[in-house]
Amino acid sequence: MRLLQEVDPVLAITLMAILPLFGFSIGVVYVVAGMRFGMIGGGLVIAAVTSVHLLGSYLLTRGFLRAPLQRLLARRNHRIPVVPPGAESGVAAIVALVPGAPYFLRNYGLALTGMPLRKYFAVCLLIYTARSYVTLALGDLGSDPSREGLLWLGGIFVVKVALCAWLIRRIRLKMRTTADAVPADVSTF
Length: 189
Fold this sequence. Notes:
Blueprint: H1 2-6, H2 9-18, H3 26-62, H4 66-75, H5 88-97, H6 103-112, H7 117-138, H8 147-181
Helix pairs in contact: 2-3, 3-6, 3-7, 5-7, 5-8
């Protein structure tokens, strides 16, 4: 802990902003931000570096990485997914909420779909920053588990699942409404 306090804050923030773009664990970034800058300062740092992550992922996947990623997916008989119009914010929220895929892959995946940055930036920034407070506030439950901490984690998990279910239902209804509105004689690509 003392060593962490001695690290130059500008260097710490710079590393937190750059390393996750290339696969470094966002969980470690959250823990370091909390330990180095506290709850309020850590939250502000997380919001700032998350902005860099979202913008950086967008620029990288819209730039020189797009063609190689498309070729890689094509070799495996996959395509870059397309998000239905009007579902961008919901899809971004689901991607940001559901655990599983690494953080940097989630960000690259959203940028690759072709949705505009403004459609997912605010949603992801809000969700990622809010999620970081779980790590900042609860700390390491593995080394000192408590009933209250586990209940908080369980409650947060239930809220995330319920929110994702609601968003999926909303997107499906929107897609069904959109499909019903398209005339039968109109051909699609």
